[in-house]
Amino acid sequence: EEPPGPIMATKPNPYLDKPLHKPRQGESLKQWFDDRLSDRSVPKFARDKIWEAIFNKDFGLVSTGLSAAGFDGAAKNAMVETARVLAESRTR
User: Fold this and answer.
1) Using one digit for the tens of pLDDT, what is the confidence trace for 39-54?
2) Which of 69, 78, 82, 88 could bridge to 42 as Cys pair (CB 3.0-4.6 Å)?
């Protein structure tokens, strides 16, 4: 006997399939991160709060902010790891 099919079918999110591009020449890491958030239509005040959390190395708050902005799974993990790199970078 074959197992039942899936209960619910989901479509892949095309945004999550896009690789995170590297900063363009002359683009600061803050600008790069802000662009990733604005691509998702995250309001400026929320982007500023997430950046403040990055600057203060509060990665729990970064993760929470990204979740609220609609990031999840691998995309959120990639953004949190990028935030860690940004926080340790001299170029902000």
Assistant:
1) 888 899 999 999 899 8
2) 69
Query: Where does residue 70 fall: left (phi above 0), alpha (psi -120 to 50 degrees), or beta otherwise?
Result: left
Q: Measured between alpha carbons, how far is 2 from 37 in angstroms, rounded to an integer?
A: 44
For 16-35, letters b (16+ CB in 10 Å) and e give: eeeeeeeeeeeeebbebbbe
Cα(20)–Cα(44) distance, integer angstroms: 20
**Sole residue written with tokens 């929320």:** 46
Token readout for 58 is 């509060």
pLDDT in tens, 58-78: 999 999 999 988 888 888 888
On whether the CB atoms of residues 62 and 53 are closer than 8 A, the answer is yes
How far does the chain reach from its first CA to its final CA, in angstroms? 59
